[in-house]
Amino acid sequence: MWCRQARGSVPRRLAAGGGRALAGPSQGAVSGELLRHLEHLALVDFRDREGVERLRGAIRFADRLREVNTDGVEPMDSVLEDRCLYLREDDVTEGNCTKELLNNAREKVEEYFVAPPGILCCPECDLQLVSHNSLFSVR
Amino acid sequence: MAAAALGCGGGWRRAWRRGLGGLVPVPIPIPIPALVHVAVPVPACRPPRVVARNAGGGAVPAGKSGLAPWVPVVGLEIHAQISSNSKLFSGSQVQFAAPPNSLVSFFDASLPGTLPVLNRRCVEAAVMTGLALNCSINKKSLFDRKHYFYADLPAGYQITQQRVPIAVNGSLSYSLCIDNKMSQMVTKTVRIKQIQLEQDSGKSLHDDSRSQTLVDLNRAGVGLMEVVMEPDMCCGEEAAAAVRELQLILQTLGSSQAIMAEGQLRVDANVSVHHPGEPYGVRTEVKNINSIRFLAKAIDYEIQRQIEELENGGTILNETRAFDSKLGCTVPMRDKEGMQDYRFMPEPNLPPLILYDTKSLPANVNHQQVVNIDWIHERLPDLPSAKRAKLVELFGILPEHSFTLVNEDGLTEFFENVLKQTQMKPKKVIGWILNDLLSYLKQHSCTVKESPVSSVLLADLLNLLEKKEISASAAKQVFEELWKGEGKTPLEIVKEKQLQLIEDREELEQICQAVIDEHEKEVMAIKAGNQKIVNKLIGLVQRATQGRSNPVLVKQILEKKLSE
């Protein structure tokens, strides 16, 4: 992440858990409820030991951001912030490629994509949702 | 937090009274000066009808606190589909009812490697709408991602404007008639929290028999303007009037065609009730409302349901409910596993949207790349409220008449066309337009464009009336004939049915004399001083002449004869 102003940007080595007050779990503590919530939101199953360890590691890594003093610095949320947002003319230039699009679909009915019924499943539901990213397995 | 600031002027005291067949709520509006700013000194909100009945058919009885007043709070979230050729972030076409997945680009299908490109027309539509609703236009607005999983949202997120939308802090004024009469109208205002640009999702068709969902992405990515209103309203009628006015404004601007039946205008209602002075109650969200009429019904039902639930000691769940139009009630829609967490994040692929005005416009700029708020402002068409004011000023008609004229598509034009071709005064013409033409149109479910009676024909008819060649009742008969659309002119019909006013004074005198002779009792009453009975005699003469006598003349003749 880049800071817009380089004021006080040298990270000070702080003891873990010290420094500015942290909101939320500190020292990588992740409650079971939070885990369930995250799994539900992301439709990802990672509640095994390795998954939780990785999550804790990720939180610890991200927490290091808090070591930087950002008082009075406006957050930057896009590296494109100084670019001009290009405006397109309102012309029809795309579409009409039903066949190509449906080529990718594992299942189709006439010219519709087919999806399983319902979506927001609790982890307890037995629903096979195959996403195009096979890295995720969903229970 | 103060109760609804600019909405209903008071709470309702629901005093339960034993009416015929059960308990009947009696509304007694109470002003609450400490909490509420009332724009108009009249609490115009009408209480809902009792729509909920228990299994036995009687009204649900009041709880222990039968006389505690309730303040309903209604807020609306309206999604209006932008009227444009192509979608918000891609070049695929926007069209209702096309072969499934034929209007879908690679971006709309969320294929990897595609990026959003903002459609200028959508920005202009949002700015126009913001200006028309008295909003402040944010010269810098941002795009965000709202994440949730659903089959018709291929990306797994919707691009919207959650942090800094394009327009904020506006207002919408609308009018209601009190007591169901058109004669008393009151103006109310609802605050607009914000207007934001966002993508529409595709459509899912649920096939329960085969346990699958069919997905059509034609609608995915179409530009939407979400108009968020503050909870300033208190009943279904107010919400319906506000939405109707918004619909008219959008259609006048052309930013959206706002046809609810085609899904171009979708309204979700947030409803809660509380006692005055207490914090707002738990709200429910009501969806699946397909017309303005159902909007009012759904809201009133939900208010009623919540009041009854609370009065019976129950609680209101913060849930989403769907309106079932056939049953006229709301039903829980999906299991609420707590509040949805959309994990909003800035859209990394889009820089901020910068808008300019004449002052901030940089020199040497490519005009195609710039949206100038002032330029758009100058070109705003007359809004419905301005049109109504003009009609009242130009033609001297009543405000409530102007509402009906502007409300009905094409009626104002029809009215103005008739005026151009007749000498009859606007105040008289408007009666024919609203009472005769409009009621026929409604009876036969026709639009003004489909009217078998054209403005030319009506003008001809009114001219005959104005020149006193026919009486008013004869004119109504002619109008009925004209409605059949057989191509005859008013004059032809008059001749055919012999509806011309009797010119021959002697003939009239004979008929009058005959009526006098046959109604001795009435004559005696008149001579004894009861002048009103003269009208009865006039009516009898009219009947005898089949509507072909001039009532003023008949009155003269009768009075002369009776005084002899």
TrEMBL record, chain A:
Function: Allows the formation of correctly charged Gln-tRNA(Gln) through the transamidation of misacylated Glu-tRNA(Gln) in the mitochondria. The reaction takes place in the presence of glutamine and ATP through an activated gamma-phospho-Glu-tRNA(Gln).
Cited PANTHER family: GLUTAMYL-TRNA(GLN) AMIDOTRANSFERASE SUBUNIT C, MITOCHONDRIAL
Assembly with partners or alone: Subunit of the heterotrimeric GatCAB amidotransferase (AdT) complex, composed of A (QRSL1), B (GATB) and C (GATC) subunits.
Any GO CC annotation of this UniProt entry: mitochondrion
Localization in the cell: Mitochondrion
One of the protein's GO biological processes: glutaminyl-tRNAGln biosynthesis via transamidation
Protein name as catalogued: Glutamyl-tRNA(Gln) amidotransferase subunit C, mitochondrial
Encoding gene per record: GATC
Coiled coil (UniProt feature): none
NCBIfam families: gatC
One Gene Ontology molecular-function label: glutaminyl-tRNA synthase (glutamine-hydrolyzing) activity
